[in-house]
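Question (not urgent): is this output format expected?
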Amino acid sequence: MVMSAATPAGPHPPNPLGIFQMMNAFQQTAALCAAVELDLFSIIASGQASADGVARAAQADARGVAILADFLVIHGLLTKAEGRYGLSPEAAMFLDRRSPACLADTAQWFGYLTERGNLRQLGGATSRAGIPCRQSKPGHRATNGSDPE
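Got this back:
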């Protein structure tokens, strides 16, 4: 049975949430790696809780730190109350460099693979006949990776 876009799958209609989560995954990785590189989690754990204090300790721009920290609040790694940041239990356990369970270096490694590694070439590597998907003509929906001409 072929389902059209208008046909709901099962008891719930189609939802693009998973697609949007995948599209945003790169930004989440980049933000996590930037925070680890600045040592943001350890700085906050040591008591610097304002964006200005964290920025001074990290030798970074206060506005940029605030934007990054607010993004991490949205994604549940930091808390924020009255302009002061705190660590979520997960960030305290796994991202504070003083924790024996710290995964900060692992997070940086995954960021390195995503940013500089071959993952950026995944579309071309997985296309048929070695033709990257983005080389298809505008408006053409290639299903076999080949040029229709």
